[in-house]
Amino acid sequence: MDLIDSLIKEGWLKTPEVISAFRKIKRVDFLPEDTKDLAELNDALSIGWGQTISQPLVVAFMLELLEPKEGEKILDVGSGSGWTSALLAEIVGERGKIIAIELIPELKEFGEKNVAKYNFAEKGIVKFICADGSKGYPKEAPFDKILASAALAATKGGKEDLSSLTMAQKLPRAWQEQLKIGGRIVTPIGNSIWLFIKKSQEEGDESSVHLNSVQEDLVFEEKEYPGFVFVPLIEK
């Protein structure tokens, strides 16, 4: 049984769109030459510069939580090898757009070169940006979905102590504001994967987290899925 079939059998891959993308976009095309023979392993693999291409199980789980749809505009933070950007591009299609942000210049070039094998940039579906993903990308906002492949800090962020904040408050302000109402953010925080769904004030209930903003009252529904390991998100 190959890797994708095992991910389907074990329940990690579920929806037809995500399964189809996994079958069309080959992980081997996003690995350095010296690790291409390991593409079928269900493990995170080094891609250099202290970064990894995520475990296929984890990517499948995060994409299923994100629920990408044809025609959507999605921000892919920490795009790295370009694998998630290409998977998302395959799903959103020519009416959609993926903004792939990577802070490490060499890694941005590596990911861009890998995704070029599928002509997504040529078709205008994927745009690569070398920048700090924690600041989002205002030029293309608002986004239907935001995916991050590296972990936000769960306890401390720079000089600021985050231990007293709710999980939604630990999200970069830019992500909160650049997401559409009804949009989803899937991101690691510490050793958990978190799903955040942005609600209107009217939709918010007792379980929602209200975040006061100068522009609006931001309301998020949140859910935690613990037990994962990620490299940290690099910020400037």
Structure description:
The protein has 236 residues and is of the alpha/beta class. It has helices spanning 3-9, 16-24, 56-66, 83-92, 105-115, 173-178; strands at 45-48, 51-53, 73-77, 97-102, 126-130, 143-148, 156-157, 160-161, 179-189, 192-199, 209-212, 217-226. Strands 5-4-3-6-9-10-12-11 form an eight-stranded mixed beta sheet. A two-stranded antiparallel ribbon has the order 1-2. The protein has a two-stranded antiparallel ribbon with strand order 7-8. β1 (45-48) and β2 (51-53) form a beta hairpin. The longest helix is centred in the first third of the chain and has 11 residues, at 56-66.
Q: Any key phrases for this structure?
A:
236 residues, alpha/beta, eight-stranded mixed beta sheet, two-stranded antiparallel ribbon, 12 strands
Sheet-strand content, in percent, reads: 25-35%
**Sheet with most strands: strand arrangement:** 5-4-3-6-9-10-12-11
User: Would you report the number of β strands?
Assistant: 12
Query: Distance between termini?
Result: 43 Å
CA radius of gyration is: 17 Å
> Helical percent range?
10-25%
Rounded mean pLDDT is: 87
**What profile does the largest beta sheet have?**
8 strands, mixed
Q: How would you sum up the global shape?
A: globular
Q: What's the order of the H and E elements?
A: HHEEHEHEHEEEEHEEEE
Uncertain segments are 156-162, 211-215
Number of helices: 6
Helix and strand composition category: alpha/beta
